[in-house]
Each structure stands twice: as C-alpha cells, then as structure tokens.
Design brief:
638 residues; alpha+beta; Rossmann fold; Arc Repressor Mutant, subunit A; Structural Genomics Hypothetical 15.5 Kd Protein In mrcA-pckA Intergenic Region, Chain A; 3 domains; eight-stranded mixed beta sheet; six-stranded mixed beta sheet; 20 strands; globular; binds adenosine-5'-triphosphate; binds zinc ion
Length: 638
C-alpha cells in the first residue's frame, strides 16, 4: 500500500462524489483512494452500528455511533494522507445537495441501499448533467450500471422489481407457505395487537364479519377492565387460532380443493397447564437484568431449534405477557423490527401455530427472523468486486470512452464458467418520464378524487417526488409545505372542483405540470376523466399510464434481486434458458441478450484470464465453480 499507484490524467484531475459509505461504500472509497483519485466527497446519513462491522472494514468497534462518512475518511487518510476526502454526515436529499452542488463533480458513484435515494440522485445527475455509476448487491448477486445523460438509459428508464407482495386472501384465509404465515403474524396480528389500533387491518375485517354472527367477538382484541393478562392472551390465542379457523371452515367452497385447516385452542395444546400457569411458572426465570425475552423466560436457548406446537404456544403467551407487563408504554406504537428479540419471538411463535393449523412445516426462530426481516446476508466479497467494477466504469466515464461502457452483472453463470457478465448499456428509453419529455396519462374520476389523493398516490408514491408542486398552465394548483387555508381547501376538494376554480377550466382532458424543485425534475400528466375503477385491480381509484411499472413479484423468477434486500437493492432478474447455455438478463421491458463471448472480449470488466474469477471467497471458506457445465456445484476447498 505504500507505493503510489499509476494514475491516468483523467483520474488525477477528477473530483468525484460517493453517495453511501456502507458495505459497497467502504470498499469503494478504499479502491478510489488506492487508484489515485485525489478529491473524493462522501455523503452518508448514517452512524456506524455493530452489525456493520463484519463487512464495513473501515470501521471498528470503538467507532460505533459515529458518522460513517467521517470515520471512513479518517480511516482512508491513514494510508493515503495526501488526498482530499470531504465527508458529509447528511441525507443526500437535503437541499444543500442541489444541482449546483452536483455540477462540481466529474462523476457520481452510488453505494446506496434504497430506491428513493437512488431515484433522487439519478434526477439530480440528469439535471446537473453529471454521469452516474450506480450499483447494488444482494448476497452473491450484484451489478454496476452506467448512466450518462442522452447517451445511455437513466436509472429510471427501466422498471424496478416491486417488493414481493401476496394476495390478501392468501394471507388471511388460505396460506400455503411458511412465508404467508409470517406475513400474517407480522403485518396483521402483531400490528393489530401492538401497533396503531386505528389503522386498517384485515384482522378487523375478520372480527367485524364475525361480529355479525357472534355477539361476543366484537371486542376480542380489547382487554377488558381488570382482565388478567394470561386470560387475555389465551382469549386472543383461542380467537385467532381457534374461532377464526372454525369460521373459515364454515365456508365449504374455499376448501373444496384445499386441505382443511385444524382449529387450535389453548386448552388442547396446553392441556396440562391451568390457564394462568404459563406466565406464573416461568416468572422465576425472569430477571430485570436480562433483555426481555420469552425464550429466556422459558429457559429456551437455541434459536435453531424447531419448537413443538406446545412450545410455540407457550412462547406466544409468554411473549404476549411480556409485552403487556414489561413494554406496556410502547403498545400502540410498535411496528415489527427484526432486531427486536421479543417481537421476533412472538411472530415466530404465531406463524408456527398458524403453520401447524394449515399443515405447513414449522420453522426455527433463526429462519423465521430471516423471512420476517427480508434478510439476505451481505457478502463482503461481492461488495469488493462491485466496488472494483464501479471504479473501472468511472475511469471509462472520465476518459469519455463511451463505446466501452458496460453494465456488469455479478451473477453465477456456471455454463459459461464465469461470474461477471458485462453487457452494453441501452440507449435512453424514449418513453421514460424522467429523462425524456413524454407526458404521462392519468385516468381518474375527477368528481370523486381529491387533489391530495393524486399527490399521495401518484406523484409521491409512483413518481417518487419529494416536494411536488403542481401547475395547470400558469396557475398554481398544489405545493408542499405550509400553505394558506384556502389552498388546503382546494387540495381537499375533488379534482373537478379544483380545476373549475382556475380562470380557464378544462372539461375534456387537462395537462398538469408536476415539478419537484428539490430534484429539479418536471413532468407532464394528462388527466382523463373515468367513472368506474375495478376495486381489486385498480385499488388506487386512478390509473397512470405511459410509465414503466414495477415488475410484479409473480414475474420475478427465483433469481430476482428485489428491493427489500438488506444490503443494496440490485435490480435485475436473470433467467437461464434450459435449452442451451444462453443467458438473458430480463429487465422487464426487453430481454437483454448477452453478447457472444467474442463481443465482450474487449470489456474491461471481462477478464481474459477468467479462471481467476472461478475462485471466490465465501466469508471464511473458499468455494470454487466446477468447470463441468452440467453438474456445476459450489465445492468447498479443504
Ligand atoms: N438518503 C440517503 N442519504 C445518505 N446516505 C444514505 C441515504 N440512503 C441510504 N444511505 C446510506 O447508504 C448506505 C448503504 O449501505 P449498506 O447497504 O451497506 O447498508 P447498511 O445500513 O450499512 O447495512 P445493513 O442495511 O445491511 O444493515 C448506508 O450507510 C446508508 O446510510
Ligand atoms: Zn430515463
């Protein structure tokens, strides 16, 4: 590390901005510094956590709680003291990072972990006309893409996979996989018992449905005055695992082609224990010094043990009791957090009891936590490979070497005996609402919909704008922030009325201009009136077209790298064809066929001595790809 690396003049004069100093960012800063980049600015809003230390190697235990950007700078200056590194402990969406700020850089490099920040940086790079090298990793998968205004597609030209969602009825009535039980336990039961009671929740629907046939279930989720906590826990248990299942069974149609679930009542599972014994028996294990944990309280230690139905029932009741006795103040404000031990225990137990009822194999707490927290374990080596590729692309960008720009996917492709797949970037998508000027079209019931619904459901949620401002010709219709009461009244009124208040109301179709000052981003939306919407298929009550919609979970095959990944969300679904050794990278709109091997031989990312790529580090073990294309397996080197 002591000798200076050779640096091309493009690197010597470069000023670069890195966004994110996490898993990819730490590797990237080190590689930039060692490659001779003299002037690096880093934005990261986070402080260091213990869980970062296994892979974010610039950080040490004693840095926990300090700014990632600042500590990363100090760590790198220790071995490259003569370069400039400017840290910002801030959100990249802060107004200080405006177009003028972005314009000072030759290239921007992203090492982020969320769609929102990525979209924001993409838009500012377009507005400032600064090239962007974007990246993401999930476990062993990763990718690097290059976005240069007018030359390649922008980050938003292609749709991104939507986070996995499940039909409500699968979750509430007909689960067939363990993940369905987890979603039910976490998003319905946990949220209902410990979260905001006023929020819509499908358990509400079920209990009010039930209320019409049985008068005493209406308040089942409410604790009666002076009701003993263990009795209350058993009442909830019997309601959700017993009574609700019986109710569901009464609908014969549902079970014609399915296995019928089995109602589970606490007295049957815990038959040898009187109603109040669960808590009382175990209180002797409880100590104020220990973290609040039902497992600890019941003397259960191993998170990799699969609990029996009886054990799950005891954990369920004990976790329930602990929430109400030890964490009472938080009740009403809790949302599931994968790092909250008691919440994980409760959700694991509830999911397992439901799984038992539906004949689905039970899982241990470790597995359940991974599913509930959408955890894909980060792999330091993938981050390092991706950081190297970012620097390779950054150097090409600085040299304006357009014909060699590559998007590179880090994706095992055993048949080709390679791990990195470079493809030529696409041209900008002419119908991209972000980097082209194509107007969007919005069908909406103008008599019923409010301007503020349009802002929430379309402008913020779908177009990713932070601080929108809406104009109709030269008339201001909506702006974010503190506004006068009469403006608020317009937002609350239906759209028809809001448009009618303008000097020249439009009846047929109206063009709205939506602008986000913070992102220097403008797009046009053509409003068309439509009377009816299908509640199931069009739940927003409005339909936006002319934009690239996220890919639904169903279309994502197994290898999809989704948005909820723990490290960084990568974006591409790779599908291997069964017929031959062809691989296509499906980016939803188009299939991207990889160039022949001869085509990619000039790519900097593709190494002539591919053999080097066959050995990768798997945390502390080495794994090697077998050269035999038919029986390719990871092999551990002993
Ligand atoms: N809007 C933003 N502004 C600035 N930094 C951001 C923004 N959004 C995300 N980041 C940073 O991007 C980095 C992403 O790093 P990484 O994917 O390794 O996540 P992490 O939070 O460090 O780890 P993990 O999520 O796996 O526990 C984080 O350090 C995070 O603070
Ligand atoms: Zn675009």
């Amino acid at each position: 590390m002591a000798s200076s690396p050779p640096s091309s003049s493009a690197i010597k004069d470069a000023k670069v901005l890195m966004v994110g100093a996490g898993g990819i960012g730490c590797e990237l800063l080190k590689t930039l510094a060692l490659s001779g980049f003299p002037d690096i600015h880093i934005i990261d809003m986070d402080t260091i956590e213990v869980s970062n230390l296994n892979r974010q190697f610039l950080f040490r235990q004693f840095h926990v709680g300090q700014s990632k950007a600042k500590v990363a700078r100090d760590a790198v200056l220790k071995f490259r003291p003569h370069i400039n590194i400017t840290p910002y402990h801030a959100n990249v969406k802060d107004p200080e990072f405006n177009v003028d700020f972005f314009k000072q850089f030759n290239v921007v490099l992203n090492g982020l972990d969320n769609l929102d920040a990525r979209r924001h940086v993409n838009r500012l790079c377009l507005a400032a006309n600064v090239p962007l090298v974007e990246s993401g990793t999930t476990g062993f998968l990763g990718q690097v893409t290059v976005h240069v205004k007018g030359k390649t597609e922008c980050y938003e030209c292609q749709p991104k996979p939507a986070p996995k969602t499940y039909p409500v009825c699968t979750i509430t009535s007909t689960p067939s996989k363990f993940v369905h039980c987890i979603v039910w336990a976490k998003d319905l039961l946990f949220a209902k018992l410990f979260g905001d009671k006023n929020q819509d929740n499908d358990l509400n629907v079920r209990s009010s449905d039930a209320a019409s046939s049985s008068k005493n279930v209406e308040d089942v989720f409410e604790r009666r005055k002076d009701e003993d906590i263990d009795q209350y826990g058993r009442k909830i248990f019997d309601h959700v695992f017993g009574y609700n299942i019986e109710l569901a069974l009464s609908n014969e149609e549902t079970w014609k082609n399915r296995n019928r679930p089995k109602p589970i009542y606490s007295k049957d599972v815990l038959s040898d224990e009187p109603a109040q014994q669960n808590g009382n028996l175990e209180k002797k294990y409880e100590s104020d010094e220990l973290p609040v944990s039902a497992m600890a309280s019941l003397g259960m230690k191993n998170p990799q043990d699969i609990w029996s139905l009886k054990e799950n029932s005891r954990i369920f009741l004990e976790a329930f009791r602990l929430f109400f006795t030890k964490r009472e103040k938080e009740i009403g404000n809790l949302s599931f957090d994968k790092d909250d031990q008691l919440a994980v225990e409760f959700v694991t137990a509830a999911a397992n009891i439901r799984a038992a009822s539906f004949g689905i194999p039970l899982q241990n707490l470790f597995e359940a936590k991974g599913i509930a927290g959408n955890i894909v374990h980060a792999v330091a080596t993938t981050n390092a490979v991706i950081a190297g590729l970012i620097v390779i692309e950054a150097i090409k960008v600085l040299n304006n070497d357009i014909k060699n720009y590559r998007m590179t996917y880090c994706l095992e492709h055993p048949a080709r005996n390679m791990l990195l797949m470079p493809v030529e970037p696409f041209e900008p998508n002419k119908s991209c609402y972000v980097c082209s000027e194509t107007p969007l079209s919005l069908e909406i019931n103008t008599n019923r919909s409010k301007l503020k619904d349009l802002v929430e459901k379309i402008v913020k949620a779908k177009l990713g704008m932070n601080l929108p401002l809406i104009m109709c010709a030269s008339n201001l219709l909506y702006e974010a922030g503190d506004v006068e009461d009469d403006m608020v009244a317009i937002y609350e009124a239906n759209l028809e009325k809001a448009l009618a208040e303008l000097p020249s109301p439009v009846t047929g179709g109206t063009m709205l201009t939506v602008e986000d000052m913070q992102q220097e981003f403008v797009c046009n939306i053509n409003i068309k009136h439509r009377e009816e919407f299908d509640e199931e298929k069009e739940p927003d009550g409005m339909v936006l077209s002319g934009w690239t919609q996220p890919v639904s979970a169903a279309e994502n095959k197994d290898k999809s790298v989704g948005n909820g990944a723990s490290t960084s969300d990568a974006l591409i679904t790779a599908v291997e064809s069964e017929k031959d050794d062809e691989i296509t990278i499906v980016s939803t709109l188009k299939k991207r066929k990889l160039p022949d091997e001869s085509d990619i031989s000039n790519s900097a990312a593709e190494s002539k001595n591919q053999k080097q790529l066959e050995v990768i580090e798997d945390e502390d073990d080495l794994v090697m790809l077998d050269g035999d294309s038919d029986s390719v397996k990871k092999r551990r080197l002993s």
